[in-house]
Amino acid sequence: MQRFGLQFSFTIEKGELERTPVGSHKRRTLSEPLPGASRVTPHTMIKLQLYTVLLSLFALLVQRPALVAASAKPKNLLANGYFLAESVCGPADSPMSDLVNLSSMAALEEATFGDYKKGSVSMTFESSNNSALSGSAADAEWDSFFPKNKGFISQDIENNTVLYSISGFHAMHCLDTARRVLEVHYNVASNASKTKVNTDAIYGSYYHIHHCLIYLREMVTCTADPALEHHIYFANGTASFGGDGTKHECRDFNALYNISDQSHEAAKMACGGSDE
Questions:
Q1: How distant, in Å, are the alpha carbons of 140, 232, 234, 253, 254 from that of 247?
Q2: Closest CA to 124 of 229, 245, 250
Q3: Which of 189, 216, 245, 260 sits CB 3.0–4.6 Å from 183 for a disulfide?
Q4: Residue 96 confidence (pLDDT)
Q5: Whole-structure pTM over 0.70, yes or no?
């Protein structure tokens, strides 16, 4: 048994290692091992290489689910400018009837939000101290920013009631997700948040949070708000750029909320449901 380091050992067959006798005064060349050093035979080298390959394969198998999740492509994207729509009424009898041209999506956006995009409202940012810090109170406050359908829009396109996500509510969902994960991390979350984060393998995963952070970064660069913020001075003499009291030119969030909410009611009626 040949030992390497602390308590790490593996069996090497007899004759695989040859030692240069300790105390030999023979002049050595650069290619010769130092006195007492082990010289690895070709057979041993092959075994070590195979061992390394097996370790690499094992690591790849362990990491494969995460790699697949990170590199997965959306399944609803199809060629020639079409995508497979999700109907608010459920899947159609024929998958082909759920195919929608992307140009229809652009036309819907212009028809629904054309006037909305032209208008703007003034908004003064408030101190974060005015908002609930955590727990059930924070859950209720954040939930109030979502319409009944959580921020989707349903429209009849090409004989199908198609479901779309509205980007502003997608961003709100990402912020709410990050908030819940942080509250769980700091042990200030409500039981509802703990259950949602700890039992849903996708919702509270690192890859979901990473997606949300990148999405929010893109939203910020898209908006590129030029509003100027001033120092906020505190009683202890410190100051910071907190953004409190700064006026911004914004889109009308309440109008976007109403558009999504009304679409939800109309879609339920179109699918044969009630408006309750």
A1: 26, 14, 20, 15, 17
A2: 245
A3: 189
A4: 47
A5: no
* Structure confidence by residue, pLDDT tens digits, 128-156: 888 999 999 999 999 999 998 888 887 66
Q: Judge whether 188 and 180 are in contact, CB under 8 Å.
A: no
Number of H helices, E strands in the chain: 7, 13
Read off the amino acid at residue 196.
K
The tokens for 216 are: 């929010």
What are the phi and psi torsion angles at 163 (to 5°)? -100, 130
Give the count of beta carbons closer than 10 Å to the beta carbon of residue 161: 19
Mean predicted confidence (pLDDT) in 231-239:
83
Determine the Cα–Cα distance for residues 78 and 84; give it in Å rounded to an integer.
7
Instruction: Look at residues 100, 108, 106, 110 and name the one whose alpha carbon lies nearest to residue 80.
Output: 100
